[in-house]
UniProtKB/TrEMBL annotation:
Ranges of Low complexity composition bias in the record: 34-47
Compositional bias (Polar residues): 24-33
Keywords: Iron, Iron-sulfur, Metal-binding, S-adenosyl-L-methionine
Protein name: Radical SAM core domain-containing protein
The species this protein was found in: Roseateles puraquae
Residue ranges of every copy of the Radical SAM core domain listed in the record: 107-316
């Protein structure tokens, strides 16, 4: 579990570097929210995502806002008076890349690899921006380039995500290549095309998770931006009838906070194998295709907290069997973390970094071949001729993993989706 920066082991201290260039709008006197090993000479420390030690933001910075146009950048700064906006978090992309900084051990084995097959999407979710900005599809060549590394690293499962993976025109060819390596495929989908593509899905995929954020047509439409509740439910029923293991995923947010017990009932009605709940992230500029802070209607407000508490109480009282038997994937304590996370975000409770070892056992590969240690933290490498192992074990990537493990990434404190891989 990463220690929080406050509880770090003394090898790290806050970066000295002024962040006047920081695209998140931090002031020039604020320290970057990264940490350098103590004793390091400030002048030799630099941000690996910047092209130089200049105090100007770098075009190569992996922060989503920095990648946005200069006009968007200036707009963000001007609307916040140069200070962080209410949604603004200290930059999570910045990492220290200096010779001698601690490196995590080389990765020689991975359990799970997530592929963002495409950035494109045909939904219009309030919580996610892929549908606004996503353009790129993963190239078939990228999957071919990945195959030797997936095999050498003993990867067991590949999660197909995005964007909307079923929109990729060649996803079946990609799935065929991956399955020929003995990999098990897990599809995470909005479900709009599930019924239509069911034969291909059933042939290539071992497990399907459908994102279903509303228990009614009205709340689904408010949250996912489409009048498609019945289409998605029909797709889920068809997949269940075809014998596929199907689960539902609910992203808990303003628009569904009072519906959580109804969503459990809906899951039973649809005949799926289970349901899981995840708090909506609004804190990371590295996630969900963002090029700007998450919009207002997603994060819980103080008046939503009693609704969430009532939903969780009702689940504990009326779905105790589902909790005990695993139909609801989270334990009661983990569900209560959603509440604690919301309270912390509103300044009503402490932020605590969750238990997570995702970067040591899994990796995420974006549609353009860039690597991420997890959904929320931008990586330093792009898949190249050396394949997956070389990219994962590049020194900058190992330094990033060491910084994460040392609790040096603010992203972890705010994480809604930590993952703990128990020993195999
Ligand atoms: C980005 S989507 C990609 C796969 C597919 N398009 C789908 O919706 O399932 C992956 C998951 O992230 C969830 N998601 C979207 N916005 C989120 C947010 N702000 N915080 C946490 N999860 C979010 C989606 O509901 C979905 O379960
Ligand atoms: S959550 Fe999935 S379906 Fe919704 S916009 Fe993002 S990628 Fe598309
Ligand atoms: S998944 Fe969350 S807790 Fe885990 S490394 Fe990423 S940001 Fe940190």
């Amino acid at each position: 579990m990463p220690a929080t920066p406050r509880a770090n082991d003394g090898r790290w201290r806050r970066c000295w570097r002024p962040t006047g260039w920081c695209s998140r709008g931090t002031t020039s006197s604020s320290p970057a929210n990264t940490w350098t090993p103590t004793g390091a000479s400030p002048t030799t420390t630099r941000c690996a995502t910047a092209s130089s030690t200049s105090t100007r933001r770098s075009a190569s910075c992996s922060c989503a806002l920095a990648r946005a146009s200069s006009a968007a950048f200036r707009r963000t700064r001007s609307t916040t008076g140069g200070r962080p906006s209410p949604n603004c978090m200290p930059c999570s992309s910045v990492l220290i890349d200096r010779p001698g900084a601690p490196m995590a051990p080389e990765l020689v084995q991975l359990r799970l690899v997530t592929l963002y097959l495409t950035e494109r999407c045909n939904s219009r979710c309030v919580s996610c921006d892929y549908w606004r900005h996503g353009r790129q599809d993963m190239a078939l060549a990228t999957v071919q380039q990945l195959l030797p590394g997936l095999k050498a690293l003993g990867v067991e499962q590949v999660l197909l995500s995005g964007g909307e993976p079923l929109l990729h025109p060649h996803w079946v060819e990609m799935a065929t290549l991956l399955r020929a390596q003995g990999l098990k495929l897990w599809l995470l989908t909005a479900g709009l095309a599930l019924a239509k593509q069911l034969d291909d899905v059933a042939r290539h995929v071992e497990q399907v998770t459908v994102s279903l954020d509303g228990a009614t047509a009205a709340s689904y439409a408010r949250i996912r931006g489409l009048d498609a509740f019945e289409v998605v439910c029909a797709g889920v029923r068809a997949a269940v009838r075809a014998g596929l293991p199907v689960t539902l995923r609910v992203t808990v947010q303003r628009g569904n906070v009072a519906e959580l017990p109804a969503l459990v009932r809906l899951a039973h009605g649809l005949g799926v194998n289970g349901i899981s709940f995840l708090a909506a992230d609004v804190a990371h500029d590295e996630a969900f295709g963002r090029q700007a802070p998450a919009p207002d209607g997603v994060a819980l407000r103080p008046e939503d907290l009693p609704l969430l508490a009532a939903s969780l109480d009702a689940i504990e009282q009326t779905h105790a069997d589902d909790l005990a038997g695993g139909f609801i994937a989270e334990s009661p304590a983990k569900l209560r973390r959603i509440e604690a996370h919301a309270r912390a975000r509103l300044g009503l409770g402490p932020l605590t970094a969750p238990r997570c070892n995702a970067p040591a056992h899994s990796a995420v590969i974006e549609a353009d071949g860039r690597l991420r240690p997890c959904f929320f933290i931008g990586g330093t490498q792009r898949l190249g001729a050396g394949g997956l192992e070389a990219a994962l074990n590049a020194p900058a990537e190992r330094r990033l993993r060491a910084a994460i493990a040392a609790g040096a990434q603010a992203a972890c404190e705010r994480c809604v989706c930590a993952k703990w891989f128990a020993p195999a």
